[in-house]
Design goal:
Helix content: 25-40%
CATH topology of the largest domain: D-Maltodextrin-Binding Protein, domain 2
CATH superfamily of the largest domain: Periplasmic binding protein-like II
Number of strands: 12
Strand content: 15-25%
Strand order of the largest sheet: 2-1-3-10-4
Number of helices: 9
Radius of gyration: 19 Å
Order of helices and strands: EHEHHHEEEEHEHEHEEHHEE
CATH architecture of the largest domain: 3-Layer(aba) Sandwich
Distance between the termini: 54 Å
Length: 281
């Protein structure tokens, strides 16, 4: 049987879905697995902040509709793009091993300080006073401003390649940026770890819930397919994924609010660092 895997069409989404396809094909050579690219609202509308067009859920709704309609058999998402509540009739497979959950600072060579401030081990000290830093995240904006109130934090949209281009090779009509903040996982999966200037410490830049984790979504009725995918899952990754999604659900956070959750194992125990702040009225 050939199973159809729904995915966004961006390069990162395709790479992530290909990782899932290839692992399934290796584990189950008697079956075929093919990618089905689907264009989402988040891919079509790139001139407005995510919070203005519906938040991260705009990257998954069309794919979930295709899954419910039987046009695809499973879907691969960045788990941090999934709302806390899933549509009726859909479920998630057991989580697979997680990629690096941290955020990464990418600095323009023309902006980079020759060295950090003496006596400091903070990666943001690589940036000069008043540097312009771009991110599309309410969470990252809040944490950056708390750590360095002098920074000018601006919004940015587009896929990873587009954001790197805007930093390193801006068009004549684009704002000159000194740095951008991206998820480390996406850079690593794209083979662009060389672009990372520094990884931001998750003790203050707490990652988004489920950052670095892939979500494999299926119809709840697809029991045999779910069993196949679950067999490749990881107990520790599943525990971390559930802890962070539970926090996200408990807060009821929207795309306009700063929410962060970072589950990790310390001395055999699962620890959860979390943060949630409603916007001031």
């Amino acid at each position: 049987m050939t199973y159809r895997i729904g995915t966004r069409g961006s390069r990162l989404a395709t790479v992530q879905a290909s990782l899932v396809r290839d692992r399934l094909a290796s584990a189950y050579p008697e079956h075929g697995f093919e990618l089905v690219p689907i264009v989402t609202k988040g891919d079509r509308v790139t001139d407005r902040p995510l919070s203005a067009i519906g938040g991260s859920g705009v990257f998954v709704r069309e794919i979930e509709r295709a899954l419910l309609a039987g046009e695809i058999d499973l879907a691969v998402h960045s788990m941090k793009d999934l709302p806390a509540e899933q549509p009726e009739g859909l479920c998630l497979a057991k989580a697979w091993t997680r990629e690096d959950p941290r955020d990464a600072l990418v600095v323009s060579p023309t902006c980079l300080r020759s060295r950090r401030v003496p006596g400091s081990d903070d990666s943001l000290d690589l940036l000069p006073p008043g540097a312009t830093v771009a991110t599309g995240s309410v969470r990252r904006t809040l944490f950056l401003k708390r750590k360095r109130p002098d920074l000018r934090v601006v919004d940015i949209r587009g896929n990873v390649d587009t954001r790197l281009r805007k930093l390193f090779e801006p068009a004549a009509d684009e704002l000159r940026l000194d740095a951008i903040v991206l998820a480390a996982a996406g850079l690593r999966r794209l083979g662009r770890e060389d672009a990372v200037t520094a990884y931001l410490d998750p003790t203050w830049m707490i990652p988004a819930p489920n950052q670095g984790q892939l979500a494999i979504e299926l119809r709840a009725a697809s029991e045999s397919l779910k069993a196949m995918v679950d067999a490749l899952g990881d107990d520790e990754a599943e525990a971390m994924a559930q802890a962070e999604r539970s926090f996200l659900k408990a807060t009821g956070a929207t795309c306009h609010e700063a929410v962060a959750a970072y589950a990790h194992v310390v001395d055999g125990e699962l620890k959860l660092e979390s943060f949630y702040e409603k916007p001031s009225s």
